[in-house]
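Attaching the record inline, Q. Sequence:
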Amino acid sequence: MELLRIGPLADDPLDAAADFHARLLPGIEAGLSSGGDAFTLVFPPAGHAHRAWRLAVVQGLARRFAPLRVNALEGDAPAATEAAAAWLEGAAGVTGQLLPLDGTGAGMVLCCQQ
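Structure, as predicted:
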C-alpha cells in the first residue's frame, strides 16, 4: 500500500480544495494510473468543513481507478496513521473511505485479539 501525505493546505475549505485540485490532483491521478493495488492519502487534521470535499475526492478517485483501492486518513499522529494503514492493508473490500484519526490510543480492536 502506498501512502501519500497531503499538505500543507489552506485553513479555508474552498481555498484548500482549489489548491488540492489544481496543484496535487494531477500528480495523484498520474500515480494511480501506474497501477498497484491500494493507495492511501493522508490529510492533515482539519475542521468539519473540509470533510465534504475530501470525501468527494476519495470517492471519485476510488470509482475512477477501480479495482485499485483508494482511501484517505485524516490525522497527524504517526502511530495512528501506521495502525490505520496496516488495518487498511488487510481490509481488501474497503475503498472510497475517509477515516478520521485522533491518535488517542483507543487500544486493540476486540475482534482481532486472539
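The longest strand covers residues 38-43. Residues 5 and 42 are 5 Å apart (CA to CA).

More tomorrow.
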